[in-house]
Design brief:
The complex is a heterodimer. By secondary structure, chain A is mostly beta strands. In chain A, the strands form 7 sheets. In chain A, strands 17, 18, 20, 22, 23, 24 and 26 form a 7-stranded mixed sheet that branches. In chain A, strands 4-3-2-6-12-9 form a 6-stranded mixed sheet. Chain A starts with 34 loop residues before the first strand and ends in a 10-residue tail after the last strand. The N terminus of chain A is likely disordered. Chain B is mostly beta strands. In chain B, the strands form 12 sheets. Chain B has a 6-stranded mixed sheet. In chain B, strands 33, 35, 36, 38, 39 and 40 form a 6-stranded mixed sheet that branches. In chain B, a hairpin with a 7-residue loop joins strand 35 and strand 36. The N and C termini of chain B lie far apart (78 Å). Classes of the chains: A mainly beta, B mainly beta.
Amino acid sequence: MNLLIPIKKSGTLIVVVALAFLLLSLQANAAVEGITGTSPAPVFSLTAKADYITVPEGSRIFMWGYADGDGNMQYPGPTLIVNQGDAVTVNLTNMIGGVPVSIVFNGQDDVNASGGVQGALAREARYGETVTYTFTAANPGTYMYYSGSRPELATEMGLVGALIVRPTAGGIPIPNQAYGDASSAFNQEFLFLLTEMDPNFHQMIEKGKMNEIDNAGYFPVIWFINGRAAPDTMLDSHTPLLPNQPYNCFPMTHPNERVLMRIIGAGRDLHPYHAHGNHSRVIARDGRLLESTPGSGANTGEFTFTNTSIPGSTIDAIFSWNGNNIGWDIYGHAIDEALNPLLNEIFVQSDIPAGLLAADAAVSVTSGVGFPAMASFRAVIWNGPDFAAAVKEVIRLKRSAPGSDTFTVVDRGLENTAVSDWAAGSAIAYTDHGAPFPVILPSQEVLTFGQFYSGSPFLGGLGQLPPGEGGFNPNGGFFFMWHSHNEKEITSFDIFPGGMLTMIIIENPTVPLVNP
Amino acid sequence: MRKVRTKKILWMSAAVSLLLFCLAGGAYAVDVYLDVQAFDKTLPDGTIVKMWGFAQCTDGTFAACSPATVPGPRISAAAGDALNIHLRNSLPLPVPNVAYGEPVSVMIPGQLPVVTASEPVWTDGTSGPRTSLSQRVRSMTHETAIGASDIVYTWNSLRPGTYLYESGTHPAVQVQMGLYGALTVDSGAGQAYPGVAYDSEVVLLFSEIDSALHTAVANGTYGSAEYPSINPRDSKSDYFLMNGMPYTSAVPPTFAGTTGSNVLLRMLSAAYDERVPLLQGAYMSVVAEDGNPYTYPKQQYAAVLPAGKTKDALVSVATPKYLPLYDRRMGLTNATNTTGGMLTYLAFAAAAGTNDLTVTNAAPARGTVMSVPGGIHCGTACSAAFPAGINVTLLADPAPGSVFTGWTGSCTGTGECVLDMTADAAVTATFSAVTSVKLLAPNGGEVLPTNSIYPIQWQAPGQATTFNLHYSLDNGATWTVIAKNVQGTSYNWKVPKVVKNKKEALVRVTARTAAGAVVGRDTSNAVFTVQVLKLTAPNGGEDWSGFRTITWTTYATKRPVTKVVLEYSTNKGKSWKPITTITGFNPGSYTWTVPNLLAVKPNSKVRVTLSDAKGILAKDVSDAVFTLNP
């Protein structure tokens, strides 16, 4: 049962994490999971095996997959993590009867292979054979690998995986960047390896009728992110419940941090991957930074809320969430409460170069200030070093003309603050600090609750809930659904919720993300 | 079988323009004469599909025409040229259950046509402003009725780029039937767009065949109750074409360009579904889309082509190689045959010269020689020209009842034949009849985990068509059926669950003719092991003291394990002392505190025994002695 904290009208925030049962994983991985090779010459040994996976409505589906050495077959295959410049060796041994397997490394040039026999797209290993692939991971980025032997069956059956190349400078890894450029810096990174599945293919192969499969009759009915269909996407990674599906997809972040989305189209269909909560900036495709000229940084990618993944291709995008201009204080502060430096509540602060009298309709601010060019937004003016104790006035501003640093005062003396005279040098801030919640929350007896509601609308807040409600939001975070917007793809066998769906949690900045 | 000398490298086709009038400003008027014909296309698997295609004719009399092709002939022009396409419609008049034809037209998305008063054409045959709600657009532009000749479609000033020309009439049927082709317009000599120079080019036009629709058109039943109309929900493409043909290993590689030069890939899609050409082993710089150059080129190795899309990309490769380019949407099969569809190999060579590879296969019924990249499929395609200096691999694929006995000539032995083609090469492949039944695997020494899938393989003479498979766990004293009436040369055997590791297992294959007469049988040359349990540590050679973890791998047991007994011996297994007993589950590992022994014991072993209430399920002992060090 939850420990319930009633919300006081003044909005004092208490962040408490005290739950007797935890239905959701707190194992947020801020770094992509996988096998990290040993620079400068990492060696990986993969074994192609046949085994089963479990999907949420209860079916077991026969799969082919890459295992790490003697380990379990896994779907997707192990994510291989290397450094830029590494001389990579991948040994592939085939223990699947009746079909050769190989590995194609998209985006890697001059892959040499030995062993096995020559196949249409790559050297392949027949049952019991080992093929060795070598290449130099010359460029950082997000890549994939899959079997090039009967790829229309092999990728469907699960022989796919991700390859991450981390950027280096002079041989030294550059941490928390995808491409050795500031435009690719991130606080957290998550893998979104997207696939779809037609179970008929799997059943026919399981029954030994591989050569009778009608490839053109492909009809997927279940969809996956990182080998799991919702809600298993939000289960722990490496959960013993899913021994052949080790990776999860459960992004978590704080406001104003940068989340790197590594989106891989590992199946054969396009998927419009839609991230609620904010737009994301596409910074790279197919492992190449989207630059106008080399060295310019990622400056030609679109700012979009849906990234359509292309089969065989990869996308890197940066997502960031903040509550700026949401219209109310997401932390539930009253205007006279002190500013918490951890919470980034002041979006932009400047000062007024000339006095602002009670009757004035325009205010000029220090040039180059960075206030938004929006229709109108909330600002707070105060004077003196102690924000909490100072007299404050809440106003609404809009920029007088594009590029101008003069703002028209659209409204003065809001939220019960007095219209005052302000001396030159008074502070003015674009902020939502103290902005009241815009509605009166209905009382509980007229509400129904989702499991993700913490009982409080504030970031990090918990609130009173009837017994048995909620439970999936122990830190009072904001949940946004990240999913394929091809709506059928968020079902598993026509059952919603399912398929290619997960949630991102924006947690209060004081909440530690486990495994940051 | 007749050897077909194929000397086909797909060089870029020459421009079509036959009649050039010089216009003001140095531009020309290009006149093209196309006859729309119904014809039969034979696909590599022998399927015959009715198609509609453009046939290139010499002039407005349409008296001399080449055969119709799909895609239609490529049209080349320069920016600013005027283009006049003259159409004749030789499709049959529609007769129910006999023949099916329609009026046709031609449009070029992205190019600005001269608009006439006779467009659009409605489903009731009238044109001009819409007068009734029951009218639907039948043609985007004016029509060429069945039997009409020399109907002209004009574009006054072509924009540079790569464009798809296609029928503008009932496109859901007519584009599917094959009425499409490529138009390329250069902005200057060797320049696709201003600032986009290229040294050589490859046109890659992707399309699909939904043979059910083609059959309805061929039978004259399209639009009848038997095939009411094209329903995108049910439409299913079963053939995937690149430049009009699906891939087989008889299709030779496409010469793209010389190393270090700029190769322009002109990609077009007349397919209905998205196609994603993926270049494996290099990046392309995508420079334009739909004839519109990008401000900044995009470095990608795959490019999505929605229906009707064109994209231009530059590729430059530094060292000689073949690069596969294929549809990553997996349009890679020809009906149920794999390694087909939208696949080609682009050749980047040091120079433009080629050398000939000739394969001799005296017994094509006994096997096929195939090449990677394609070009050789011998029996039928036994000679091809390949660029010098890039490796071509020959593979021998014996037919059932045959075996490949070796190469002679430019290659020897029975493995792969790799030729660098720096000179002409001649290779002979010998296939022989299998004379006796032989089990190839498992043949002795293997370790097969229970419940795993193991491919049993054998070879047999040609008259043997059905096979029975048996296994024994007691060195041949008794036999159990695996499968009966199996066809082919391999069978995926689900290794049964057994009680205790069986180290005397054998497999036997019995070959019969279709009539049931026994042709022969063969058994594994030596015993193999069916393994249910393997003790992995300690397994021999270790030196253990203190806390050590005993580990074992359990495969599928006959019944669920309810008890695990761990024991150790210090006298090579003559007697055993208990370590522990675990009940209720089988953890696979156990951390043992090495007991207080009086001396070092170098002849130690561990034994793990799995059992349930009915008895022992599995047992395994360290393979060799290890040392216990108290």
